[in-house]
Design goal:
The complex is a heterodimer of chains A (265) and B (263).
Chain A: H1 2-28, H2 45-52, H3 54-87, H4 91-106, H5 109-123, H6 129-154, H7 157-165, H8 170-199, H9 202-207, H10 215-224, H11 229-264
Helix pairs in contact in A: 1-11, 2-11, 3-6, 3-8, 4-6, 6-8, 7-8, 8-11
Chain B: H1 2-31, H2 43-48, H3 51-84, H4 88-96, H5 103-113, H6 119-127, H7 138-163, H8 166-174, H9 179-190, H10 192-208, H11 210-216, H12 224-234, H13 238-259
Amino acid sequence: MRRMKWGNVYLIFVFIILYTPIFYLLFYSFNSGGTMHHFQGFTLEWYKEVFHDTRLLIIVLNTLIVALLSALISTVLGVIGALAIYYVKSRQVKNTLLTFNNVLIVSPDVIIGASFLILFTIAGIKLGFVSVLLSHIAFSVPIVVLMVLPKLQEMSPTWIDAARDLGANEWHILTRIVLPFITPGIFAGFFMALTYSLDDFAVTFFVTGNGFSTLSVEIYSRARQGISLSINALSALLFLLTIVLVAGYYWISQKGSRLYGMWKK
Amino acid sequence: MKNSVRNVYLFPYILWIALCVVAPIALIVYDSFFDIEGHWTLENYEKFFTPVYLKMTLSSFWYAFLITLFSLIIAYPTAYLLTKTKHKQLWLLMIILPTWVNLLLKVYAFLGIFGTFGLANAVLNAVGIGTKQILFTDFSFVFVSVYIFIPFMVLPIFNALEELNPSLVDAARDLGASAWTTFRRVVFPLTLDGVKAGCQAVFIPALSLFMITRLIAGNRVITLGTAIEEHFLVTQDWGMGATIAVFLIMIMAFVVVLTGNRR
């Protein structure tokens, strides 16, 4: 009994450590004093500043467009990749493909960023929107593959055989049987790709060039100049967005498993 | 016919592997053989084995080791206690939630907390130690990094603990093992895969995160990642940057093999 109590104290301590910086940021976003210490008075000035900063709003828009586009395209590519790995018969080939798939997941961001910078320079792709989008697609694909593949492996192969016996062609098998079954995996992959893209700093920092910027890069360059409470206001808004995204992801995964449960019955 | 349909999937995927995995790494290796003027040379490798770079590599290793160790020391009990709570999935989600907050914002928060008049110094003053310079020291670098990595360490260990069959623990206790012996001989060995996965997820990024060193540690701490960033984006000496990257890739491969062989 005593043990458990100390355990709870420890857990509470860890949670306090984990959440202090986040709430510290949110708290001072309302400080009229303009610093991250000594709270002078309540103000919404910094939020107003964020909404009047056209440059920042364009950057937010850029970030969202890159995230949505890259998540969409990498989901399509990732599903294709998962199907490719699933259909390969030889175990050895399968493992080789998976190893290559995982290289980008374990690679540090600096390596991905630096190597893509070289790649884009040699390929003659101008650094900017296109290079950022392409690199985000590149590092999101393996994540989607890893989210979709377990769903494919859960699927009973006899369904495909049955469908084929009943005269379905490959296209019908894909759209009527395989895709509906792996939909929860596809959504999970899409959300993961979205959050990876929104969160990425290091890779983008390498391939972004001069004219184009995403939110992470902008936060970095502002933070290097010191503390400005509009970053705090921005972080509060992003935190809200994150909660909405997490809730959405949770809802979809719950719904997915419920649908799957119904399916099994 | 079936095979041709399947190749339709294989073709774009292999194209992606070739363009986005193989080509970039090949280009890094290729670039490491050129000096800043574009002449073929082995000089970069010679330079890497001079004391300056070796010392940097060693200190980068040392910091990554410290960060991994402290993350493990904090994360293992956390994961263990989490598995004992009610609503453990919800608490786990609460541990993961901060990872969805942009890393730079969390680092930026520490600029305020560790600042001269920040929360940390307020606490130190209240305890009677007095104001200390916390920002731009190696302590702040290690602390912030551990803070960032704790969830990545908790998650795999939590999963490993969840897979552990509780009757094994009961059996050990019934046979007279103390709580500590049970942990040392039964629980820890059986969750070693989770610990390895966590260490892999922390150690490799800890070698290469340059934004934390830049923002929190000033230029006091230079890791392999900082050096690569500096060569590529500041001094424009891509050859040397690529050479350090080659070594980072080799270290990464080594760590993956070392912490790999999971079932």
